[in-house]
Protein 1
Amino acid sequence: MRTLPRWVKFPKFRPQPPGRPKHNMHTISHHAALIYVMVVVSAADGAMNDKELATIGELTRTLPVFRGFDRDRLVVTAQDCATILQEDDGLAAVLGLIKDGLPEHLRETAYWLALEVALTDSRVALEEIRVIDTLRRSLELDRLTAAALERGARARYQTP
């Protein structure tokens, strides 16, 4: 496992109280919002390993939801996310941008992408679980939907 790239500094996880006002920031595209999801989950445990980075690249190359995305912008988009995360309440700001940037029908896709990145290295750190749960609440996904997506993701990585 390698340490985070120099441009990523992930703050310690601090749950945000409900009803906290959103940061007044620009809206991002659905492509950027989905990439932010993957970056946040990958960096949650303090290390972005090669498998997670490869998974992010592969998902942006192959999934239909990323059609039309300029793959040359992947690193810049990830860096933008990392810059916001460095600010006070950066996680809350990123989650707000994700929610505002995603149409409702892509919220389940975002949650599934978070699970895919978390399960890539076959172990899910406590910090990743916390971020994924915070993401679920931010996206207003019900527990049953989340459980179904989690079960499907777990089945995908099952070993004999």
Protein 2
Amino acid sequence: MTAAGFLAGALCFSAASIAAEPTITITCPTGARIQAELADTPQKRSRGLMFRERLAPDAGMLFVFEEAGEWSFWMKNTAVALDILWIGPDKRIVYIEENVPLCRQDPCPEYKPGRDALYALELPAGSVKREKLTKGMKLTFDLPK
């Protein structure tokens, strides 16, 4: 699968499946901590956070790809607005898309970084401003083995 061909559905899972999903802690340079679900398989990345009606302010989803690429996202079936951060292999933010709105048309618009990223982090809209996140900042997290 090519990077350009991948479309991740943003924010999904039912409340029941969320509770069962393991999370990792991502620490921002400001010290804020985010509890992120992992989307580390093609199925989890494809589903993303679709159908989620709300997302806690300190919650998110970290998309983990097998290789760096210009991974595209869309908001199909997503009920909450998001901030999306694309993150390089060095865990530095390479691109930010803020306040991505719900998709109200078909086809949904695509959002992509224009730079290679190994990870993408979806957060509730307003998180980037609240935590003063900018391109080049390094996030801290460890993936499970």
Protein 3
Amino acid sequence: MLSARNASIGTTRGSRAELFRMSAIRDDLPARSSPIPTSREITRQRDLHESRPLWADSPRISLRTRRSPQRQDYDCIIVGAGISGALAAHALADGKRSVLVVDRREPVHGSTLASTAMIQHEIDVPLHRLAGMIGVDKAQRAWQRSARAVEQLTRIVADAGLSCGFERKKTLFLAGDAYGRRALRTELEARQAAGIEAELVDAARLAERFSIDRTGALLSDISASANPAQMAAGILRAAAARGVEIVSPLEITDMRATTDCVFLATAEGNIVSARHVVFCSGYEFLEAVADRDHAIVSTWALSTPPGTALPDWLKDCIVWEGADPYLYLRRSRDGRLIAGGEDEESENAYASPQKLRQKAKTIHRKVEALLGLSLPEPDHVWAAPFGTTRTGLPLIGRVPGLPNVFAVMGFGGNGITFSQIAAEIVAADIAGHGDADADLFAFRARDS
């Protein structure tokens, strides 16, 4: 298969270089999606976390990588070696395809390190509200697919025997200023209609079981938590054992997409090509796909030292609230309290050291008030940008106007869960049989 394809695209360095004298992207794209610059950036590069996150010092997150690709042509090239790229590699590594994963950083040292790794089936936009935005059927399918993704992630971790602190959890969704008791009851009915089990906990039982003073909560089963760096590194190792090649650091500086092949230029001046290219570059997204459906916001997080005195029920639950901005928290296996929130609709606010201090204090104070206890000062605080969409659903699939180029972005608060969905949808498309839910997450055509 490779030899036939290579014959059709040409194999000389001169013919490859000639491609990069042509226009990279259609001229009719909106102004924000201007042609890919000839400077060092094909993607919007960002400092993905302002300070050092908790996971940066984790053991077992280093991988053996190559300094340069072993070949010029591949069946699939994945740009990004975080959790999204790892899961894509896992899905595409069938023992037959040649698959290359590249990253301009050390693997798993991008946006994956900034994750708090609350692996939820619950989407940021509640089901009943999402139904009003995209229709009941599509909303139900999105939530059902999210629940199945958590189950599949559980199987992947178990099958690979990963040591990444993965634990199944319940989710406690608390009433807040954005979604009160009535909204929770409406949400419960919407979930039950979709076949997604949940329990409505009234104020009295919430106080008795959890010592939390809110008007109510929804308790559900299909969630988990993990060390995201160890999880991504473990999945990449498993993919490498199945023949996936990992090259780092390797920066992609330009791209040309044709109907037969996609060519990528590297910072070293070399060119590699593939039948399909998948951009799993976290919050550094392709200029070519930046559009009105996607926005970057800033978020903040903290963790307390190991062995923090916490309520016993936190061993089994992760928590978030129906508020704006909302608070979310969980307990790690070694007894840390990991919490985050205070999101701002700004793609640069995360970079402010002053905001980092202020937001950390606010999150710390809110958690103390919610749990009714005194917490030690955090030993890690960090900030990061993340992608979001109006519906809370990610953008997954073929990039309009760029043949054979896929991208995954806009993961909001469900990065790991949506990464698994993305891996399944992209792998199905490349295999040629498609995915029944692909339409839920597809990029909109530029003229729509």
